[in-house]
User: What shape does this take?
Amino acid sequence: MNVIYLGIFINDKNLGGTLENKVDIPHVTLEFRPKVIPREILGKEVEIQVTNYGNNNKNEGYKVVLPEEYARYFKGEIPHVTLSYSNASKPTNTKNIKFDEEKRLTLMGKIGIFTDNGVKYTLN
Assistant: This one.
């Protein structure tokens, strides 16, 4: 199994988005190409707090705060959920936008892995 990333997959698949390309599987990437998969957290339901919104006409997303018990698994720069992106960009660029609009929202998600065969919540 080829694991592309460990993430928190948002339950609500219709988060919106105003740019050309909507994200099909909204998520927070915890770690890209993880060397070790923390089995103990796979399948756990997680509440994520949205704190800010950003849109620079290339990428659009929410800045989020992860629950304390899962924050240590985050290996990126800014925890966020990409909502949409333009044809001139890619989803991975969302971390570079300014999340300058305050936004308060709670999202529910589940920890899993994204593989070449889709999202999985166990290693079986």
